[in-house]
Structures
1.
Amino acid sequence: MSLSRRGFIKTTLLGSAAAATTTASATELFSPVKKVPHASHFGAFYAHVQDGKIIDIVPHESDHNPGALTKALLDRNYSNTRIKYPYVRKSYLEGKKDHAKLRGNDTFVRVSWDEVAKLVAEKIKTTPMENIYNATYSGWSHSGAVHSCPSLCGKFFNTVKGGAVGTYGEYSNGAAGPTNPGIVGDMEVYSLQTAHEQILENTEVYVMWGADLFKTNKIDYSVANRKNDQYYHKYKQSNIKFISIDPIRTETAKMFDAQWIQIRPNTDVALMLGMMHHLYTTNQYDKDFVETHTDGFDKFLPYLLGKSDNTPKTPEWAAAITNVSADLIKSLADTFVKNKTFLAGNWAMQRAQYGEQPDWGLITLAAMIGQVGTPGGGFGFSMHYSGGGQAAAGKRTPPGFAQGRNKVRTSIPASRISDALLNPGKEIDFKGNKITYPKIDLMYIAGCNIVGHHPDTNRLIEALKTLDTFIVQEPWWTPTAKMGDIILPASTTLERNDIAYGGSYSGDYIYAMKKAVDNPYEAMGDYDIFARLAKEFGEKEYKRFTDGKSELEHIQDFYSKSDGPSVKSFEAFWESGFVKFEIPKSAYAFVRHGDFRKDPVANKLSTESGKIQIFSQKYADYGYTHFKGHVTWFEPDEYLGSPKTKEYPLHVLSPHPTYRLHSQLDNVWIRHAYKVANREPVRINPKDAQKYGIANGDIVEVFNERGSLLAGAVVTEDMMEGVIAIEEGAWYCPEDPAKAKSRCNSGHVNVLTASRPSSQMAQATTSNTVLAGIRKASGSLLHNQAYSLPKLQHA
Amino acid sequence: MKVLLKIGIMAWAAFLSAHANPYVYLDELTLELDRATLYNGAPVEILSQESETSKVKIKGFASKDEPNTLYATPNMKVVLAQTKEPLHVNENSSASLEIEIQTSLLEEDIESVWGTSMDEFYNTCTQCHAANEPHLHTMLEWDGLYGSMKEFSKPTPEQDELILRFLRSFSSDGFVKFDY
């Protein structure tokens, strides 16, 4: 059936009218409810708008398990924490000499857009590009392509200034990301995973090695579809044996009745080596696979057997480190090698000191088991991320803005920002090379919360106080915005038009993110803010930045570059709000590394040998003390086996939040459902709770030499003894912002984490290598002000 | 004194620039000649030059298994030319091709020669994240990194070839040394 454009609209309108007839309330008689299609990292939905206000969020058909996270976007849109106008910090505006010292503890003065645009432009014009840090990081702020903060910020600086210092790598996979390509020819952490269909059909043992599939797949780097939850029903009904190796008994482990292996945090590599030793000495490892598909096993063997360091990596050796008994280590290894076993790795274990090692260990173990590239066997490092395991439509989705070339060649590894700000000119090792930190005077951040995600908050705050200018572009008064000098109010996605796709792996939908309501204040879209600033640099720069196109024209342009037009015209897409692609049958048969397994010569990996590098000469040649030519166990500075436990006896984990996306949604009503006394929960084992005189619901202080925080105790058998967990992302709130290392009243875990790098190799974040003490909080406690506004002066 | 020093430096830079080896600069990725197909960006040494044509030497590497393909580096990843006749391959795998080419197809400016490929890379690979500069990785690392990420951007086969060729050529072990 073909429909003319006019006919289509008529039909759509009739459909809408019919829907309205069946659902209309009395108030809709005079104020009809518009259903505006939109999309987010939490899922696609329709914003129900009445009288210019969003009154409800109703999930789209592509969301297979909608929940409260999406609904909460309504609350977030109208949050009291919104930044309504442009502001400049008072002592900065007045040009006071020591203004930087007041950063985070000052009054903000309302200014006009004209004033603020001129001020920002002047600062950027007078600061050399080598001294400007574009700190806008990653794309988690929202799903839209046109208002994408990192793309826009990069494009802006490259257009008006020629460039700026950028960020190298990332926090999520800072250690494994740069290391894995040398081992297996691919980052692995973002790659298409073996399809769920293959797992369901073939897998006998599914090992969740720190992977919390259900929790972390609630959100998506693009637009969540939660299709994995449908598969988890099938997983539950299957005969697959689930094993969870994790210091936390996760929701997923409970859902699948998984065997829980309680491992000391940061000791996964020792456990892997113990298993490898057992497989080798019992002659169970797959010699053929190791011979045909790997390189350097002979150079790894002396280490495994202890011939090179007098320490055989026996299960008994591993047991002493990991808290997993030698018998259990042997039995697990036997189980893995005798059954079709899938090893689902995670990202948390590489966010630790020597974090370059765990993935290498898991890959080496999987190679010895010999099931890499088989349907339902081998390893995967992304089953927990953005719908990992879903079959891919294989269609082109809308691109985003190209940032263009950055003439500044210096970039700072993500975890090194505090170190770089505090130590300009310092030289560090990095991936076989040297990096020299630049001197940063001006920092610009849009749509991300560095005070939330960067480790060792107190050190970061000290570092931020070295800046001359800190510009923050945000919709909400986040802890980062409160630290800024110049505050540019951004609209929410619901107040502007955009385009997105989802899910990250399935890529089977394109979504219209249509504007639902006007911004009632003076906030502007991220694209419009950068365009406004570009204008201050001249008409030529403005035209180069905007390409002479409006917001809607960019959306049309991005759509035209996708495969969307093969399904619907732009007009039809924009009207209906989405395009759906069919997923080809062959995609459901995808097996990661399947081609390599079948023919390792024709389908060689991008490694030194074309095979899996159990030993890498290139890496050995770096000559680093804590990164060798093969997977190696290094004892972390802080873990439950270290002498430091006398002072700080508990290992602190900071897993991904259950009810947030990092720090997003901490400012909505959902927090009242899980916070304890309005503070982030700290989960603790009953035996530990008893030891420290803590009861469920108590407000406790968690502390170490880097900082301290107040959190609400949740006593639970789901935590391994000796380990506590505080989910990352609570909004930081110092009790006294004027005081260095002030206690955080909100439970923001990064006041405890360390900014030490993983090693000389990747210089990555180590936020899971943390020891701390705990005690019941005493004395009168202040109200948590994390969600309060800073002092605002409306001149 | 400062002025003299500045003039001296400028003169030296001009001398170096004038004697920089040019590259084959094509509108398309390849150009088919009688004796060989040349690839855009192949570095050449000018043996003799007329206004219309130049005799050039392209130095590279080849293998005895694949004697008709001249690569830029010993890892045989970036093709410079494909010849009709087999190349003479030395013990160390070095090989070279001498050929006549239109003088107008020779260009010293790297950004002109590689502009299209650069644009493809920066346009395609900066839509989700800032680009890692090509010199930060080896060819092999780029194969792995780009291979990991291109599933998201889905370049066309033509874009794919241009981007990968650019990344390999400008990588830390590539043959183009470019100062931004």
2.
Amino acid sequence: MAEIIIKIDIPKEFKKEFELALAKVTGEMVNRLELAIAEEIVSKSKFTEKDADELSEKIKSSMNEK
Amino acid sequence: MEFLKVVIDSNILLRTLISRGDILRLIFNRKLKLFAPEKLKEEFENHKKEVLLKSKLSEDRFNLLLSLILKRIIFVSLDKYNSFILKALKLLKEHKKDKDFLALCLFMNVKFWTYEKRFFDLGLAISTKQISEQLKKES
């Protein structure tokens, strides 16, 4: 697992503001990274709209058998 | 942050696996909250091998992709929306296979993200384009 360490000097009195901002920025960064990974994987996919339609019908039929 | 909440159709979920799709980008939009019947997750898992085979992705890559996509969706158990099943069946008439999705929409009072025309006729659906436009408006 890759690990990134970033050090930022923030005055003590701004600790709370910094933590709030950090949570927001890291949340957005993780989201963007996950999207980038997903897009990279999907770019190699051979799945088609026809596959999606057929499998969706199968899945719905199975859902209704329960 | 204002969220747009929708119930996602199985067909839309599967289309995230199509290369060059806009759906994937919407799935990862943090302003969009996605819901689906728990049964969808179970059946998706049961059909995983078939999806994997058709995608021609390696199993590792496929599993990673699936975990990233599925964690964006909140799966709701039947006991939560069970009381809306009868109403859903009445609205759906012969198309009973969508009853869980519709009952969940009725329970949550949200639209159904689908391509199926009959839901648009019922005024209960929202399209990919409409979601995209609504999210743009709010950003």
3.
Amino acid sequence: MSLLLAVPMGAKAQQEAQQWFEQANAAYNAGSYDSALMLYNRITAADLESAPLYLNMGNTYYKMHEYPMAIYYYEKALKLDPSNEDVKTNLAIANLAIVDKIEEVPQSFIVKGWKGLGNALSGQQWTVLSLVAFALLLVAAFMFLRSRRMGLRKLGFFAGIFFVLLFALSVVFASQQKRASLKEDQAIIMTPTVTVKSTPNEASVDLFVLHEGTKVEILDQADGWNKIKIANGSIGWLQAETMLPF
Amino acid sequence: MKKIFGLLLFIVCVAPMTMRAQDTPTLTVSAKKQVVVGERFQVVFEANAEGKNFSAPSFEGFTVVGGPFTSTSSSFSMVNGSMSHTVKCTYTFALQAYKEGTFHVGPASLTVKGDKISSEPFDIQVLPDDGSHANASSGASGGNTSQGSSSSNTNDPQVSGKDLFLKVIPSKKTLYVGEQMMLTYKLYTKVPVSSLSVDKMPSYAGFWTKDISDNNGSLRQTSEYVNGVEYTVAEIQKVIVVPQRSGALTLDPMSIECIAQVRTESNRRQSNDPFDIFFNDPFFNRNIVNVKKELSTSTVTVDVKSLPANQKPDSFAGAVGNYNFRSDIDKTELKTNEAFTLTLTVMGSGNIELLQMPEPVFPPDFEVYDPKITVSPNVTAQGLSGTKKAEYLVIPRRAGNFNLAPVEFSFFNPANGTYSAIQSEAYSIHVEKGSGEEGDGSIYASNQEGIKYLGSDIRHIMTGKAQLKPKHSVFFGTPAYFVILLAMLLTFIVLLLVSKKHEQQKQDTMANRNKKATKVARGRLKRAEQYLKVKDQDNFYIEMSQALWGYIADKLGIERSKLSMDTVSEAMKEKNVPDDLTKQFIDTLNSCEFARFAPGSAEEKMGDLYQKGIEVITKAERVL
């Protein structure tokens, strides 16, 4: 399947990037974080990405005590692989090192469960699952249509219903994750202290103060200003250059 | 003092003797040879004869504050009948030095009886102000070095700063943060001091201080020479200060108030009373006046250097001085729930009281009590030193072999400006399972315990395959994805069609066989009938059996290879053939097979079987 998914690109370039990755990991293990970061950046500059790469970059920034950047890369890794336990753990630890502690708006268990289910697999895994479910659906349908044995036909019928549902679900989640990964609608604050305004205007009312490393959701954009929403539901406007969207 | 006395002696004793000779008039000069900038002093020219036209030298380099004050005295004496007349003329100048250097004072001249006499020229060295004179020079009638016969008027009860001053002596001017330094406050006096009280103690901002003066009532007195003048010195206070931050730190002045007892010569009352005379003797006749005087030290600025940042050991916790470090353990072989004691000892010179003891790291299964810390400081002339001990009482709760890592103690030695680190011994402790494991059930109800987490950190990086792919490449929803779905769907449809066609063909052959089944059976039955007529038993049964089997196989669409009684009855049940007909058919088949392999059956049996066969086939024809 991975062969199928890999959009053809220079196999040599891929190999080279893998080498950089290994060199960077060795540098990280040796504690020379600057050179590790340089090598990781070389990979991203080649327009390549992966959850392990972003996790390692986040770790490198964490070790350099640049927590906002660490959080940024952990979030990026989580976007590619929402179920990665290592990334989740490290993000939680990095979030302890920043100034702002925001109480999240409690979500109903249905929403939570739906989101949890959607993030149980990565987008790529959902895609693969949708194809497998479709194939099995066809097998079940064939069984139902063509079997002369009553038992097999019954099995085919119920399996068909199950695989239809599974296919639909995986298509929904895969498309959700695709939309999320293509849209840069979240950001990490990179300026040590910023004041959130009520309108996209410097002269407007100060609403609240955020510090570097805080994650915000970008709701809207207007001439260099972003309308942002933080985890507790508060909304305001911030200048776009204060944050790094992902 | 001695010089002055010498001079006096000269004046008192030698001069009259020379006078007696009465031969040559002389002009002598007396003055200090060394003065300090700002100091006031006297230059006295003395002639042993009356003269006139006294011309003073130009006091270059000095300011003439007063003078010349002239005084003349003459005395007559009769010794052995010869009378001698002594004359003494003095010309006194009060000078003040205002710049340092060596200045030449030229000769002064006087005309005595027509002869011009001159004094010896001399040099005065003016020394730089060393600070101690800042207060000293403010005295009113400076330079009254002797209160003896010179005619200075000390009737006003004042004590000059030269007679009484307070001085602070820091043991060093530059030092490191944390390095100790001694400040000694000394009172220099030439007059008796009856009492003193400290007005203002310095605040010592930025310093840790410890007063180490042992003034249990009386002040230790010594004598000391300052600029060749003897002073009685009393140590008022001795303080050890330890700077806590770097930079130029200023020590505030200390001010004290003391009462000096100044002796004043009383106005000599002329009286004939011998007692009066006696008590008017200069030895007794001195009124003592108490003069209140406020003294303060000058401010002292010390340059505090911060500790060098390079080569600072990790274990460095601010200890400055020169130390030794060691550890002791009372036992290394013990049983669980027995205690052992680990003692860390730091000894040496430095600020031992503020010293932070290094902390040993014990295995997590050890119960460690807070250490008992004892400090035995020792104050010497060199400053603070002493011993600091930390005793750890440790109880291992689990059996096993444990290693106690060595403890490192590091300090900065200001003497050579380097850091030193001393490691204590490493111990390996063997703990055996004690017998009293159940004894402390109150503490440990069960031997189980949760995992102790010693720290937290981020998870390690992912190594191995990077699984890199181009950015924003999501396979879902791409044409390739749909192509795969479509391909699967097409495969499905093709398979479905192929399977349908196959079924069709199969069904076609079945229908064929079904159609032909009756015809074939009829032919076989006809041949059986002929065999029946010729009484050919073997061939009759073969034909009968084949007619029956063949018919049912073709009718039910059962393949010949799978043909058996069971498959037939099952297939007939599937086709909803009535049970009695199925039974009848199977029975006929059975009896046919039986008759075929059991020879010697009756002829009428053959006819009966033939009838039965025709009957079941006809009945089955109706149902199937």
